[in-house]
């Protein structure tokens, strides 16, 4: 059956389960013209081998200035001056600027450093579980009670965001990366969020300049003051850290837990064999990653890409999720297999733009999933699977809420947690999760 051209990549059914469409696209060829809800068209790469080659292709640049007028007319969603002030971060830079900017953050996310922080992350996770309500006819929303909180607490610890500023961060500021076009009725609210986030970033910069520490935020402010970064680059890097540094992990917690509730035998095996968690996290990342699609790439001149002529300035996007379920790379790719002989998946990308926070995300996911599985016996969805609301994000996957139930009789198993009272300070007080949570039935 031939695919339409361009292929629409939006709608509730697509967001709930895009994999049948991706399978058809892979079978038809490695690259396809696609359409996003804002009217933006792009060239989408699907297969694993083609995705790797595309992500490593030096002809493709990330800087938005490479985009042509057709792309700009639809995709430049963020208004000026904010676009120029907040969109010059790592995701939109090419070498040598990308290399220099990336060097400023790599130490903060180095595997050895984040592994040393694992006991602290464990305390944070345990505190959030301790604060969860244990009763209610509709269960609890694991996004509000855990998944939206834990990654931000971890991020604040890693980048040196002081508690008084962390307490003022609003999660809805992350919505400024969602497409809201100039004629959309929600545009005024979108621009208000954008201005609020800018004001917050300015406050963070001023605070770290007045009260410098040894955290990443302070180092970035110092780099700006010493001429290594422009004011726009500093603000953009903080913007990227605050938005991209937490929301994908929130979403990955939800996709992983949905996958495990669909495979209760795997969930129970992880409860019985917690040492499997690192390998399980890799398989869960492969099976349903939070980074569904990459951000834009552009050719500086017309060129052939996987046998198709792509005009200069047209956007090229890679489907990491489609690549990670390519049967030519992963046998039985739609199966959650905790014993899979894991090859390199592409959940964190590939090449020079490989996610710099990958090591941190892996430790976060191991701690988060290990804690929830160990301490919430009988963990299961509190609503039918098909009633879950998947976020309508263009590039990411995750559920807006995750209503779950668990067994509350007896004492929860804490064997998956760590006793770290001798090595780190007690975590800050965590407010209890609201009990009066309801989910609409559709």
From TrEMBL:
One of its GO terms (molecular function) is heme binding. Residues 407-423 have a biased composition (Low complexity). It comes from the Bacteria. Residues 406-442 are annotated as: Disordered. Signal peptide: none annotated. Keywords: Heme, Iron, Metal-binding, Monooxygenase, Oxidoreductase. Pfam families: p450. Gene3D superfamilies: Cytochrome P450. PROSITE patterns: CYTOCHROME_P450. Belongs to the cytochrome P450 family. This is Cytochrome P450. It comes from Streptomyces luteoverticillatus. The lineage of its organism: Bacteria, Bacillati, Actinomycetota, Actinomycetes, Kitasatosporales.
């Amino acid at each position: 059956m031939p695919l339409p051209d361009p292929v629409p990549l939006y709608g509730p059914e697509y967001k709930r389960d895009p994999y049948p469409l991706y399978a058809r696209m892979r079978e038809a060829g490695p690259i396809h013209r696609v359409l996003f809800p804002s009217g933006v068209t792009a060239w989408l790469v699907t297969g694993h081998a083609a995705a790797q080659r595309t992500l490593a292709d030096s002809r493709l640049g990330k800087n938005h200035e490479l985009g042509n007028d057709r792309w700009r007319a639809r995709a430049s969603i963020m208004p000026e001056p904010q676009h120029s002030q907040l969109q010059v971060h790592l995701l939109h830079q090419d070498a040598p600027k990308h290399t220099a900017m990336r060097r400023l953050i790599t130490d903060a996310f180095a595997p050895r450093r984040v592994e040393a922080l694992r006991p602290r992350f464990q305390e944070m996770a345990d505190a959030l579980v301790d604060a969860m309500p244990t009763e209610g006819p509709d269960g609890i929303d694991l996004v509000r009670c855990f998944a939206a909180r834990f990654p931000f607490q971890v991020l604040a610890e890693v980048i040196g965001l002081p508690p008084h500023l962390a307490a003022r961060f609003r999660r809805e500021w992350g919505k400024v990366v969602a497409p809201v076009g100039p004629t959309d009725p929600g545009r005024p609210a979108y621009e208000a969020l954008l201005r609020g986030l800018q004001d917050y970033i300015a406050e963070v910069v001023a605070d770290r300049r007045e009260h410098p520490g040894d955290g990443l935020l302070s180092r970035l402010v110092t780099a700006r003051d010493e001429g290594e970064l422009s004011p726009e680059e500093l603000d953009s890097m903080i913007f990227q850290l605050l938005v991209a540094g937490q929301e994908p992990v929130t979403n990955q917690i939800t996709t992983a837990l949905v996958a495990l509730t669909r495979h209760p035998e795997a969930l129970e095996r992880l409860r019985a064999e917690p040492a499997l968690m690192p390998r399980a996290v890799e398989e869960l990342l492969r099976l349903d990653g939070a980074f569904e699609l990459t951000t834009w790439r552009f050719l500086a001149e017309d060129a052939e890409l996987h046998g198709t002529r792509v005009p200069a300035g047209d956007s090229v996007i890679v489907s990491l999720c489609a690549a990670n379920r390519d049967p030519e790379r992963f046998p039985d790719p739609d199966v959650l297999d905790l014993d899979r002989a894991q090859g390199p998946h592409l959940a964190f990308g590939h090449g020079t733009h490989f996610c710099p926070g990958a090591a941190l995300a892996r430790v976060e996911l191991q701690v988060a999933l290990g804690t929830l599985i160990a301490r919430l016996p009988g963990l299961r969805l509190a609503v039918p699977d098909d009633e879950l609301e998947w976020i309508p994000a263009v590039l990411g996957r995750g559920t807006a809420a995750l209503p779950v139930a668990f067994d509350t009789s007896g004492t929860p198993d804490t064997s998956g947690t760590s006793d770290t009272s001798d090595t780190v300070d007690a975590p800050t007080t965590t407010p209890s999760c609201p009990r009066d949570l309801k989910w609409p039935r559709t």
